[in-house]
Amino acid sequence: MDATEEKKRWPIALIIIAVVIASAAIIYSYRDAPGSLPVSAVSDGSNGIIVAWQKDEGIYAQRVDSAEQIKWQQGGVLICPSGSGFALQADGLGGAIITWNDQSGISDDHDDPTQEKLAEIVGVRRETIIFLEKGKYNPSLKLAHGIARALEAGIEDIFILDDD
Q1: Residue 73: which domain range?
Q2: Cβ atoms 47, 11 nearer than 8 A
Q3: In contact, 57 and 103? CB cutoff 8 Å
């Protein structure tokens, strides 16, 4: 094995070591229920990891950099206070996507209206919303503003300006 191949193996070894250390630290921190703590980890693309775990009814996440330093708050960031059955996937941009089964029982219709409700609120047909979601229709500034207001977000949070 030449020096170049040896250098390529170091980042992988560091990721494996970081996963083991982070997992052990999390499990040790929550050792009140040995063996019952679901843990998952993915690469952050910078030789560090993002770890997610479930404790009690909550789902938590933590980022550990390549120097094995915790980057987010001690004890992790609470992702969902009442979730179960989570999955963790790297997003390819240095972050991660976490999905879970929400056990809160709270309806989110108000915060995330259906296509039909959104169309009604902004005064267009449901098909217009579908075309917007598929990227087959560019909204007027008035429609973009109405949608942003209905979703309580900024226009730039919903629509991406394509320079082409």
Answers
A1: 3-102
A2: yes
A3: yes
